[in-house]
Design goal:
Elements (H helix, E strand, L loop, with lengths): L7 E3 L12 E6 L7 H12 L2 E7 L1 H4 L8 E5 L2 E6 L3 E7 L5 E8 L5 H14 L5 E9 L8 E6 L2 H7 L12 H11 L4 E9 L8 H15 L6 H19 L2 H20 L16 H22 L1
Helix pairs in contact: 1-6, 3-5, 6-7
Length: about 300
């Protein structure tokens, strides 16, 4: 069934989807520090029972030239054309609790029509709450628990989980717009921004996916299997720690981040963790340079083992 706006195809009868489910949204787009959103989406679709109930129209929403699909060349012919997808899934958590999962690419075009279409689906399926996640790089140490900034209208989550509450301007995402519209409708909505160590922003950081899953669990009551990700995270951090311990300069820089983080958390929770008392940023380039070889080596290992 085609929706009135022509942006998606409904793959199931509405009556077959339980009413009052939570909606979880995770779209890859402007920024995905630590690969948090992509890992979250892939992990949920790989580990949980799910079925596609809505398929969005790529030709209306996706800029193919900006995010070109991959096609394989096999000797003398082309195979396996796989364009990006943006779908709504009906999934079940580890305890069999159903929920809706909106995941895929962030639309390049027609944000207002896309938002209207999602609002229509939220009404159609009588969605109870909406929770979404994304991740940004921050000058924080990998040796401390990942923090989150929480937006929306669920004050209980903001009060208990949001460690940084700036007043600033940020580049918007499509899910920012969705949250804004949902707030206007007084629909319960929470957005979690994961604060990822800036020197790990360009690699897959398994602990980021764990924090994303924990945030969604806190907002929805859903339970997800995280053992594999936690083990991957411990192994990853152990290798990072080895690099830090073997390099005194790097250890000093990470120590500076730890001191600023701890001071912020203990003394003044409303002061920005981005800068020191002189307004200077930590030396991200220095940390990134020291870790570059390690991360490149890890990516090469991953590629050779795949």
């Amino acid at each position: 069934m085609r929706d009135p706006a022509g942006l998606y195809d409904l793959q199931t009868d509405v009556s077959e989807v339980p009413a009052g489910l939570p909606l979880v949204a995770a779209l890859t787009g402007f920024t995905d520090a630590g690969g948090a959103v992509s890992q979250l989406s892939e992990y949920l679709l790989e580990t949980l029972d799910n079925e596609t109930i809505v398929e969005f129209d790529d030709d209306s929403l996706l800029d193919y030239r900006a995010r070109r699909p991959i096609i394989h060349f096999d000797g003398d012919h082309l195979t396996d054309y796989r364009p990006a997808q943006l779908n709504l899934y009906l999934a079940n958590d580890e305890l069999g609790q159903p929920f809706l999962l909106l995941t895929g690419y962030e639309p390049d075009f027609q944000w207002e029509r896309f938002t209207a279409a999602v609002l229509g689906l939220i009404e159609k399926f009588q969605v109870k709450t909406t929770t979404w996640v994304h991740a940004i790089p921050m000058p924080v140490p990998h040796t401390r628990p990942l923090g989150v900034t929480v937006s929306g209208n669920r004050s209980e989550l903001i009060e208990t989980m949001s460690i940084w509450r700036p007043t600033t301007q940020v580049p918007a995402t499509a899910l920012h717009l969705l949250e804004y519209r949902l707030q206007e409708l007084a629909h319960p909505v929470a957005g979690f921004v994961l604060l990822i160590p800036h020197y790990l922003a360009d690699t897959e950081f398994p602990s980021a996916a764990v924090t994303a899953l924990e945030s969604v669990s806190a907002a929805t009551g859903l339970i997800f299997p995280t053992d594999r990700l936690r083990e991957d995270g411990r192994e990853f951090v152990s290798k990072i720690d080895d690099q830090v311990e073997s390099n005194p300069e790097l250890a000093r820089l990470v120590g500076t981040l730890e001191e600023r983080h701890d001071s912020y958390m203990l003394d003044n929770p409303m002061r920005s963790p981005l800068t020191d008392v002189d307004g200077e940023l930590p030396t991200a380039d220095a940390i990134a340079a020291e870790l570059e070889n390690f991360l490149a080596f890890r990516r090469d290992d991953d590629s050779s083992s795949s």
